[in-house]
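Reading group handout, session on sequence-to-structure problems. Before we discuss, look at one worked example. The prompt was deliberately terse, the way you'd type it at a terminal:

> structure Claudin

The input record follows.
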Amino acid sequence: MASGGLQLLGFVLAFLGWIGIIISTAMPQWKMASYAGDNIVTAQALYEGLWMSCAMQSTGQIQCKVYDSLLKLESSLQATRALMVAAILLGLVALFVAVTGMKCMKCMEDDQVKKMRMAVFGGVIFLIAGLAALVATSWYGNRVARAFYDPFTPVNTRFEFGSALFIGWAAASLAMLGGAFLCCSCPRRETSYPPTRGYPKNAPSTGKDYV
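And the output record:
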C-alpha cells in the first residue's frame, strides 16, 4: 500500500508539472521590461515570450504581436522553443505510459512486474521532460540576466525575469520530482532460497544388538 501511495503521489506531481510546462510555454511573460532607470515612462508594461511580444497599457488593455518570421529569431530562442515543445511531447508520452503502469488501473493486471516497469518507464520519461524544461528556462533566464547586467545594454531596453520563467522552473521541478517518485516503484527482486530439508529422526533403540 505504501508503494501504491508513493506511485500515485508521483503521478499527480508529474501531471501538475506537465500542465505547468504547457502554461509556461504559452505565456508571453518570459521577460518583462525593467523600470530601474530614472527617466523611463511606465505608462505601459512590455513583455516578451517564446511566441509573441505584448504591451499592456496603464488602462489594462493588452496588445500582442506574434513574431513574424521564424528564421529571423535568435537561435537561442528557437532552441528554447524546441526544448519546451519537446518537454510537452515527452510529458504526453510519459502520461500514457505511466497510466498503464498505475496499480489502480485494470490494464496488465496479469503481469504485475511488467505493469510496475511501465510505471518506472513513465517516470524516466517524466524526468527527461522536466530536465528539458529546466534547461530551457534556465538558459533563457541566464540570457536575460547577462543582458541586464551588460553595461552596453541601454537602460530602456533592459528586461527582467517574467512570471512564465518562475512557473517553468516550478513545473520542471514538479515533473522531475514526480518522475523520481514513479521510479521508486521499481519491482524488487526477491531472493529465492531453497527449502530447508529436515534431518531424519533416529529410530528409537530397541536395546537388542544384532550380530
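Points for discussion. First: The chain has four helices and five strands. Second: The CA atoms of residues 25 and 40 lie 29 Å apart.
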